[in-house]
Amino acid sequence: LGLYPRKVSKPGRLVTFFTKHIMLPATFSGKHVSPIRFFGISWNVMPLRWQTLLIVGFVLLNVILIFVHRIIIGESHEEWTIQAVRFYANRSGIMATTMIPLLFLFGGRNNIMMTVTGWSHETLNMFHRWIGRMMFFQSLVHGAGFTSYYIMDGGYEAYYYNMYKNYANLWGIIILTLAGVIMLQAAYPFRHYWYEAFLVGHVVLVGVFLPGLRTHLADHGYHSYTYAALAIWMFDRFVRIVRVVLAGATTHAAIHAHGNATHLIVKPSIHFKAQPGQYAFLYVMRHKFWESHPFSVMDTKADGSYIFVAKAQAGMTRRLLKSAAHVPGNDMIRVWVEGPYGKTYPVARYETVLLIAGGIGVTAVMSYALDLKRRARSGQHVLFYWTVREAESLNWVKEQLEEVAQDGFVDIKIFITAEWSTWSTNSSTSDMSNEESLRNIASGSCDSVESSRRVCSVPEKLSVNYGQRPDMRKVIEETIMQAHGSVAVVSCGPGSLVDTCRSAVADNVDKGTRRVDYFEDAFSSA
Asked: Could you give the CA distance from residue 70 to residue 164 in angstroms, rounded to a whole number?
């Protein structure tokens, strides 16, 4: 969907129905990026409906294939039962082993499946987790099956001898335990609240698991699956190292603090032009150089420098902000750049483009706004909505905002939701209106509320709305119904925002005069 929107009329009823009810919606409750919460804890996020259908099919296939094609011969019921248990234990063990290469393939950053399927890294990562869950299920059946088999065939003495005295089988118990620990520490709450600890633990545990599996299989064959998994992992790591080396092992970033975010300008040694919506992983040598975090490439300067904005959350982004805040002006830090990754959406082909950003999500959306502005396609209608809490945050994208606002090609609407009293002096004594003061701060030429009393200028097309939130459902519905051609809706921001946008597009996808497509730039952890 969305490859050649200018050349295709409105999709047929069947395609529209499929898009509206299968491809776009979350499984239920409208939540996909926003986590499901109980007792104040985020437990998980829901896949999209089409993803859930694939997951259900995959789970059913795993269960069914354990029990098909039985070849069991026994003169008595007891002999038949013992053979059946061993057969199912063998079958489940083989199936678990064959999923190892797929598990590593779907979890890598440099993944050929992205090219083959067109799926995002987030989608493949979700399937990576479900492959892991089913591999663990098969391993449990395998372990329970052989435990039952040895006890039924020779009693507990035979079980002890075969499971604990046999070196290969002992490693089977160890790696099954490791797999259980991996499943626990890879659960959403752990990833969500302690991501950096999860990442280190995940790598260490898997690093023990794979050679342990090879040891367990020493007497059983199927070694090729562990070699294939290792080859996939080594290829991914090799490409990642090559990307870092090409970008420059001695690359430096100029960093500057803007409120609760860090502005970074990085010039790689060899420039790879980042397309709109792409991102790169940054390693900060000053803070735990082995950790990397993804950041959207907001803009690419004429000299090939990438511009990033990192909002302080926890861990590396918080440490990065502290470094920038302690140095007046720009601080120079050594970084490694791995990327760019990700795909770009073909929004330039649409007659109407609605760009929606929330908070720091503006970095991904801004890259599309800049691209559309620079193309300036005749007859194209571009709307850009950005909701942000504080006026100071406009400094994150000051230069880019000024460029996009030129000549009015992009209709920009900014909504600042913080209370006026939280950052303004007594507005009743001000010699300027609230809107004027907001424009002054938005221009970046006013460093404080007091200095905002000076007359500062911003482009007239920059609409700033104070103390409001846009009704995005209404905005999306009106945009689709009033458009005279194809419509693309792009969103990036907090989970509640992008979930609302996705739901609104699904509700109105059949109301446009031509095709309507939705593109989401958000990370989820289903």
From this structure: 29
Least confident of 75-84, 334-343, 386-395, 456-465: 456-465
Closest CA to 383 of 466, 487, 485: 487
Q: What angle (nearest 5°) sits at the alpha carbon of residue 46, between those of residues 43 and 50?
A: 160
Give the model confidence (pLDDT) of 406-416 as tens digits.
888 999 999 99
Q: Between β-strands 252-258 and 41-44, what pairing exists: parallel, antiparallel or unpaired?
A: unpaired
Q: How far apart are CA 233 and CA 225, in angstroms?
A: 12
What are the tens digits of pLDDT across the range 186-212?
999 998 888 888 988 999 999 999 999
Contacts of 406 (CB under 8 A, 6+ apart): 373, 459
Residue whose pair of structure tokens reads 């989820």 in the numeric block: 524
Asked if the model's pLDDT at residue 486 lies above 60, the reply is yes
Alpha-carbon distance of 452 to 437, in angstroms, equals 6
Q: Exposed, middle or buried by CB within 10 Å (0-12, 13-18, 19+), for 71?
A: exposed
The pTM of the full predicted model, rounded to 2 decimals, is 0.86
User: Distance between CA 23 and CA 12 in Å, rounded?
Assistant: 15
Residue with tokens 């200095």: 451
Cβ-based neighbour number of residue 4 at 10 Å: 10
Q: What is the pLDDT of residues 239-248, one digit of tens each?
A: 999 999 988 8
For residue 250, the number of C-alpha atoms closer than 13 Å in the C-beta half-sphere is 0
Q: Name the helix (H) or strand (E) containing 279.
A: strand 279-284
Query: Half-sphere exposure of 412 toward its Cβ, with a 13 Å CA cutoff?
Result: 29
